[in-house]
Model the fold of this input.
Amino acid sequence: MKQIKSILVIGNGMVGYKFCEKFVVKEAAENFKITVFGEEPRPAYDRVHLSEFFENGDAKALEMAPRSWYEEHNIELITNERVTDIHRASKTITTINDKTFSYDYLVLATGSSAFVPAIKGVEKEGVFVYRTIEDLEGMMAYADKLKKSNPDAKAAVLGGGLLGLEAAKAVMDMGLEPHVVEFASKLMPRQLDTRGSSVLKNKLETMGIHIHLSKATNKILGEQSITGMEFGEYDKINVDMLVVSAGIRPRDELGKTCGLKMGTRGGIVVNNKMQTSDPEIFAIGEVALYNNMIYGLVAPGYEMADVAVDQILGTSETLMSPDIDMSTKLKLIGVDVASFGEPFMPVEKGYSIIFENKTKDLYKRINVSHDGKKLLGGILIGDASDYNMFHQIYLNGLPIPEDAEELILGARGEGSSSFGSAMDIPDAAQVCSCESVTKGAICSSITEGGCNNLADVIAKTKVTTGCGGCKPMVVDLVNETLKSLGKEVKNSICEHFEYTRQELFGVIKIKKLKTFDEAIDTCGKGDGCEICKPLVASIFASLYNDTANKEEVIQDSNDKFLANIQRNGTYSVVPRIPGGEITPDKLIVIGQVGKKYNLYTKITGGQRIDLFGAQLNDLPAIWKELIDAGFESGHAYGKSLRTVKSCVGSSWCRYGMDDSVGFAIELENRYKGLRSPHKFKGGVSACIRECAEARGKDFGIIAVEGGWNLYVGGNGGATPRHAQLLAEQIDNETVIKYLDRYFMYYIRTAAPLMRTSTWLDKLEGGIDQLIKIVVDDSLNIAAELETEMQGLVDAYQCEWKQAIENDDMVSRFQHFVNSEDTDDTIVFVPMREQLQPIAWDK
Amino acid sequence: MDTILNTYNTVKESEVKVWFKAAEVSKFAKDGGVCVKYKDKQIAVFNFQRRNHWYACQNVCPHKMEMVLSRGMIGDDKGIPKVACPMHKKTFSLESGENLNGDLEAIATYPVKVENNFVYIGFSE
Done:
């Protein structure tokens, strides 16, 4: 009979969890029984993304794995139970509740606690550390209390490192005025140099974070609770809350009391097998002192977990790497920050190349060996898109251009990336660190594993499924490998059309094709599908301004019924309210319609009103009432212009510099019904306070002294992006002229379902190129684009009006072809004085 | 919810006991779908003109149990005629009912015939 050995894991944090995860997939795991002790009340969660807890308040979403995962893998998880003693002689431990457990192997993954410096008054109410979900909950409750008595309450974060800046974002999200206090003369002192720090500081300050550098805090002021911080005799700030994030201290007390070898400044000493001075006791993560260092990053912690697993199972050749890669890339409050290899460079080791552009908050520094052949490290702020490639070059010692400055400046000047190809990195290079996938594994999944595209490769190797940061590089590798096999890599629309959208647009235009059958018979094959049909319909619309009533069977399913399908198969109704301006009489009509048809009503983000829960059969009658009252379709269902949002502007606002509402209405009416590769939205603000949030739109117009500034390519949504400046101080006619050209060019050249922000990203030469085309007319097509746009504008008609005036079209809205009945399976339930569809079964 | 799905079972042409007279051919959009009511059943019927063929299947999408397949777009997947649900673009073979882009349960399909300008759907009960 096999002897089952017992492993006790003390600590259920990210690294402790990782140990379990890596252990249970091993074959020999069945010979062991794992018991995990956690002192926090809940199972291990993702501490790195702690600040997300504010955004959703959902602790479960941060869990590394639910409790049931531990059960499924036969791991006993004991939470809320702190281990108090280790008895090495008897190989047992005891817990705070005096329970005793015996072990064959002990894994210490106790992590660290926040380091709280001994400052006078640090015990006052309102001083927090930033470490656990409970800490966060405490902060949130305190912030709520503060805001009730003082809406302008301020909070300081002590510590300007990685975690401190995260904490600053957290307090900002709580609605407090954020202040960061750092002892050193720069932010993120371990990762950034002084110049990089100053670029980051400027950027963060424009976002409303106050930064105080070189401040040694003497004293926390206040009676019972904190009211301020004192740095010198006359140097202090008033704050109502303080979050201490000044570093970590290993939770090494268990090691100390049982006599394991400790570092002079704390931490349990381990060798490269992760063994402590007692070979049956392992230490991993932030409690382990390896190379005389505590590593506060997740990646080295995970590697330690991996080593400990293999060592316990007897795979002795897995050892901890002698050099730990401390490279990091992150988005701090929307700002890219990356640091890799040796970020600073003593002159005896190499030299640095630095690029800085303060107007764009960009800083790039690379450090190169004296012979100019090796990349030793660097710092990227504002734009870290080259990080993956730099990191690989650094890790693998890849050759760099003879003129190393090309790495950051590009061969053609600012911004562009400069290397040959991702294929240059060695096969052993790890591309996806979450799933440990090497470049070799990715390429051979295609050359030998039978994968034919990115989706196949992802399914086979799990690459990109973790954080997704490696995706751009994986796409390059997959495309290059396919190319090397002579397989064509083409963004063709689908199996029916071997063209890109732009190519098909050209063919349909030249051959003057007018129906889907003509298009597929002339330049495609098969019968079409849900991808190519709406795409061809959209091209027809852009070329001939057909409404969605023409060939309704090839329209996107929402376009087919001129309404957005909702969760229970009912539809929503959105009349156009240009610029968000509406008379009381029209508001009353919307109210009456909502009441009559029992619709759920809500104000949308685009300054109009959405009526939900309309049954298909009722749509024509609802629209007839709205149209009779002077409304038109809002095209909320279409890949077309949605709204042009506006602030109230100079007609009422004491700061307004121009009539933003009037201009927004004019623009919305000009471009309404215009169908395009994806939806697009606009905004007009009457001053730089930007109440219309115009720079988050596909086009944004802001009144300034002497005219309007026109911005393009902005987006909210999943990847928020500020619109970029296309032209400054231009008059109304010029705005329209440039917008006509910009839209038409986008409509002609964008891929299907590509928003303007992505399109602009992919446009060779970016905004500079777009300015050349739109403003300078470098392609000599401006007149043609304007004429095409005017043609579309002139051909506009309200497609709902068209639909209700035609009996054939009205019949489309019957639920049954052979009965006047409505769908009786639809069930509504009450919600806050209105109704909603019944919930979906899981 | 399973009870809804249980009311829909594939009928082969040889099993048809009732040919239900649904509606005139002209009521069916070319290359599109409509919904036919038969007793307590909702049946999606597609006039796939490009293939010169008619197809019928359950109207309920097995993904979220909504009565919407008749409003979906039709087409082909490597030659197999299919319908795409308007909710989340799940696609189903109009011949076998199989879910072509996932592993949902297959949908039930029904035989269709056209006689004297009328469309009939075959049921076994």
Q: What stands out?
A: Residues 601 and 611 of chain A are 5 Å apart (CA to CA).
